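Most newcomers find our protein records easier to grasp once they have seen one. A learned vocabulary of local backbone shapes supplies the integers on the structure line. An example says more than a description, so a record of this kind follows:
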Amino acid sequence: MDEGFKQKVLELIESVLVYKFTTLSRQELEAMFGLSDLKQTRFYQEAKEEGKEEGKLEGKLEGKLETVPLLLQLGLSVSEIAERLSLDIEAVRRVAQTSSDNL
């Protein structure tokens, strides 16, 4: 049996198990598959990349939210800030409320 085919079969089995055992933690799945085997799967690699992308997006969002108090001090309204920063208005309201509570 060719090595590429074996790898694809292993990935298929692992994918089925990951979807079947949705209540298991990452650590439990690692113990089930073996840490090195799990890290070799496409599922793991894709999840890792998605995590990196989400982290970048969260960092950008956090940076935008940090500017909200300053923009409020400059006289912009909550809706203007949300529109200009492409943020959800409720998120801007929460930050505005938090910053006014800290005054």
In short: The mean pLDDT is 77. The first helix runs from residue 3 to 20.
